[in-house]
Amino acid sequence: MTTAATVTPKADPRVSGSVLERTNWRRMFERIPLHFSVILLMLIWIVPTFGLLISSFRPSQDITSTGWWTVFQSPLEFTQFTLQNYDTVLNNPNYDMGGAFRNSLIIAIPATILPIMFAASAAYAFSWMKFPGRQGLFVVLVGLLVVPLQMTFIPVLRLFNNLGVTNNPNFPYLSIWIAHAGYGLPYAIFLLRNFMGSLPREVFESAFLDGASHFTAFTRLALPLSVPALASLAIFQFLWVWNDLLVALIYVGGGRYAPLTYALSGLVNSLGQDWHLLTAAAFVSIALPLIVFFSLQRYFVRGILAGSVKG
Amino acid sequence: MLETQEDKWRSLFFTGPAILLLFVLLVYPTLDTVRLSFMDQLGEQFVGLDNYRYAITSPRMQEAFRNNLLWLVIFTVGTVGFGLIVAVLTDRVKYEALAKSVIFLPMAISFIGAGVIWKFVYDLKPSGTPLQPGQQIGLLNALVTGATPDRSLSDAIAALNERGVSVERQAVVDAIIEVEAPALDAAVEAGDLTAEQAKTLQARLPAAASAYLNGNLPSFREPWQAVGQWPRVAVATINDAIGQLPEGSGALICGVVPFSCIDAIVDAEEDALDAAVDEDRLTSERAEEVEDLLPAVAAGFLQTGQLPAGEGWQTTDQWADIVTNVDSVSVRGLNTTLDTGAQPIDWIRTPLINNFALIIVGIWIWTGFCMVILSAALKNIPAELFEAARVDGANEFQIFFQITIPQLMPTLTVVTTTMLITVLKVFDIVYVMTAGNFGTEVIANRMYQEMYGGQRQFGHASAIAVILMIAIIPVMIFNVYQFRKQEAQR
Q1: How many pairs of residues across A and B have Cβ atoms under 8 Å apart?
Q2: What pTM did the predictor assign?
Q3: Which residue segments constitute the domains of chain A, with CATH numbers given?
Q4: Distance from the A307 Cα atom to the nearest Cα atom in chain B, whole angstroms
Q5: Closest residue to A65, CB basis, from B19, B134, B483
Q6: Does residue B147 contact residue B354 with C-beta atoms inside 8 Å?
Q7: Which residue in B14, B266, B475, B400 sits closest to A146, CA to CA?
Q8: ipTM score assigned to the predicted complex
Q9: What pLDDT does residue B355 have?
Q10: CB-side exposure of B276: number of CA atoms within 13 Å?
Q11: Which A residues, 147 through 186, put their C-beta within 8 Å of a C-beta on chain B?
């Protein structure tokens, strides 16, 4: 069957090596536009970030006089690169991205753990306990998923001010922790409830028959079984908090406690064209997310997939 | 579901903290913001619909509505479209995982990080006031201008000489030495240099100045140097040779050749003339007369700073602005004089272009999100469907439109609604790249500016937030509806 022979390799490229050697050349030729498109898209997506990375290692004089791509005229000449920019933005107190990095960590870690803790127990209740208003509450939660945070800033800020939560000298990060914990909850509950609700029913039934309390079922069954979902969520929430600018702008009092995004946006406004410092500062702020991304991409993707309301 | 009477109370222990936080941070504030949107600046006096009137009629907000609409259409189509294309294309190559990682990568980066990355891509080096002649360092403008260095001052001098304007190269070199030599002396006095070093540098100066005219600033850039002044004195010397133009007048801003400034003023004024004729404020004969005089009047303004007498319809009050903003125009003037082809584009400040420039950043970030979801759905389509179609002789395009798209429809809907919500709330990209200036305002930035920029207009900010919420409500209802449908299938 000649028609089948020419058609099959398209359907599954992986069987191409076997009996179809003769059509291979033609097939490869036909696939050139495909490879061209994919590689072009990849280039468009990676080049801007790559340019930033290269530039952050170039002396200021070079950055402003020649394009970053000119380093490839003599790629092995390492004297054209310098760590000076990083040294300046990290250690010079005028820029202090090192301090901002620490602030980002101090903000992001509790702001990841807190909402997940609360969300896990709530998700357990929504999945395995029966109480009045359960359905209604959850529908409200689905609605809250999309409420623009702008709707909440002014009242929350006023409330925090009245309670002395903002600009509290003893707990400078308290307001932003609480804010992120609250704002992260709808998504966290939604995702964990979808996961916990699909855990095998029999496991829980037999545990309850053996006299297990809800507390035991939650800590000994639901939590350990949900580790994959918890991991996805943790990465998702961590990156969200780490990358957030808006909430930080609203709830972080001053420069001393500002996270990286806040500090970087300040540099963009004040430095303008000082590209050698801006590029290095930007890379400091995206370094950790990139590491997290490359090492834990699987979980990140899973977090996104689990959260989309499937039709 | 296990049902016991005590569940009712125990469940409170499990859900209590979450419900409390949700109430304090989301439910109560949302309701209170609605209340505040009917109150005055500080939330004390009831003002009816005043804030909404302001939010709907203020020019900045109307600009924001228009831009949000532009974002809504282009961003949504762009992210979902590219996401689908990438999902379908990468499905057929062996390096799928790598390709998808690359497209997905920007999702891990903050908007502000992405903002810096793209500001760098869009960077413009205006060469009308060449602090340093050289290449465009922004990737996009380098592509536009063909990555060739800007024409150097040497080129300008040569071009002028060809046109019979006598400019002595040596005079420009001398002018540069004249500003640098005192800087050297001062450096010796301040102890930055030894007398011997100064002497060596002094000897090198003519060569360095000459090299500068050819497009290279000396790379040894010390704080005591006057290198920053070289372009100014060089351009001033050349302008002096062209005609006795006073320093600091428009001609200097215009760089070597003031024609571009004249052109810009004439352009603006001609539009005003046409409008005046349309409104019957001028006869067309008189308009033609004025038009003939325009270049001379504009040149007079550039040299002396004097404006012609006003006649109401004129744009003379804008001339100073036109000249200061003429940087990129002057490049055009210079380049056409020198005949060097494409000029760089000011991606961030040119109206309309800048909106697209920002939307592209958004698409760059969010395409990965759409791709991940669509790609997962694509893998769930039964392979037999594709095989059957291929056996029937369908080509790839038919398969795409008649099988892939219909099969992905539910997922496409989900992804599109998610993007709609995202785009309505767009803030960070605009805040970082333009702060809403140059005609790029969006609703969310407006809300932030009313709240924190200058006066704290809490009433205005609340009304804007409510408008944003109202825009999102249809999507929200759709989401709840989808969720219920999905629950019913459980």
Answers
A1: 334
A2: 0.72
A3: 2-6+16-84 (no CATH), 91-307 (1.10.3720.10)
A4: 10
A5: B134
A6: no
A7: B475
A8: 0.83
A9: 92
A10: 21
A11: 147-156, 158-159, 178-179, 181-183, 185-186
